[in-house]
Design goal:
Length: 332
């Protein structure tokens, strides 16, 4: 029997369509062939990207030279630009402002063949430190209100270059999706005087059926009302509203569980395209008791079509309890 499930944070409903229930091998995964040719992210091609804003190097070589193992550059074709003033104005019933912000690319490895799941945990941890360093630097800009970090892995997930990378977009507004999550978390906190994410973590540990992996500091779960099959959330067990406020041992343990989860996903779903998004507190919010930062990982296994666009409902053919079991049981 299909189920309607309600996301406890933003109130969005999803349909768990058990009659369409799909095992991992039943998803139609069409892999794009590898592309040969020039790659601007490979070592030696540093002059083909905008000048770097951050790099971790093995030696003391100069900026925009080889020898790096993490490199962050402005996007050559940015969605938003750093220069200029916001200049909000109305146009009758419409509102507009200048496209001020930042759009950066985090190049996660110099090796073109690497993926995030094949990096060592030490390399993975450095990627997380790069996220942190860029957030802290961009928070100094008084025009910015939200910093979104995300990854598109594979052509079907929106990646236009094969070389492993993630992206950062800093915005002068708080996105509607983020505002909905903040509002839902605050409403729950005002009613119960507890963080809803902390309550979810406690319940998931107690029930166990949706837990994929955990360590001392983090837990990976398939959420109760997932938008997509095999969606996974990574949450810190201790309450923290902002990703950039974590301590070194948090990034160490996050790299361990994040790498483990991606390897399980690759094993079970045969290296699927996926997106992940960092959900963290807005720039000017400071530490809050009601919000809890986390990553959301969504393999691209199904298509969003007319019903989803028209209703706001998502149809998920794999119950999260089954997805968690497949991922938990994967032999790495």
């Amino acid at each position: 029997m299909p189920e309607l499930r309600k996301d406890p944070i933003i109130g969005r409903w999803v349909i768990i369509s058990t009659d369409r229930g799909k095992r991992p091998s039943e998803f139609d995964m069409v892999k794009a062939p590898a592309k040969a040719g020039f790659c601007p992210f490979c070592p030696g091609n540093e002059s083909k990207t905008p000048p770097e804003v951050l790099a971790y190097r093995k030696n003391s070589g100069g900026a925009n030279a080889t020898g790096w193992h993490i490199r962050v550059v402005p996007n050559k074709y940015p969605a938003l630009k750093v220069e200029g003033e916001i200049s909000r104005e109305g146009d009758g019933v419409y509102d507009k402002m200048n496209g001020v912000g930042a759009h950066e690319v985090i190049i996660e490895s110099p090796d073109h063949k690497d993926t995030l799941s094949t990096l060592t945990t030490a390399q993975f941890e450095e990627v997380l430190w790069a996220y942190r360093d860029r957030i802290i630097d961009l928070k100094k800009d008084a025009r910015l209100r939200y910093i979104l970090i995300f990854k598109n892995q594979g052509e079907a997930a929106g990646a236009t270059l094969e070389h492993t990378h993630s992206q950062l977009i800093a915005l002068p507004i708080i996105p509607k999706r983020v505002a909905e999550e903040l509002d839902g978390a605050l409403e729950y906190y005002n009613f119960k005087e507890r963080c809803i994410f902390c309550d979810i973590i406690r319940q998931e540990i107690m029930q166990g059926s949706r837990v994929v992996s955990e360590n001392r500091d983090f837990i990976a779960v398939t959420p109760y009302a997932p938008k997509a099959p095999f969606e996974i959330w990574l949450l810190p067990k201790s309450h923290e509203s902002a990703f950039e406020n974590c301590q070194k041992h948090h990034y160490e343990n996050l790299s361990l569980i994040f790498s483990d989860v991606l390897k399980r996903m690759d094993k079970v779903l045969n290296y699927p395209p996926y997106n992940f998004i960092l959900h963290t507190s807005p720039v000017k919010n400071g530490a809050t008791q009601f919000y809890h930062w986390h990553f959301e990982i969504m393999p691209k296994l199904t298509k969003v079509a007319g019903f989803e666009w028209g209703s706001g409902f998502y149809i998920n053919p794999t119950p999260p309890e089954e997805a968690a079991k497949f991922l938990r049981d994967a032999k790495l």
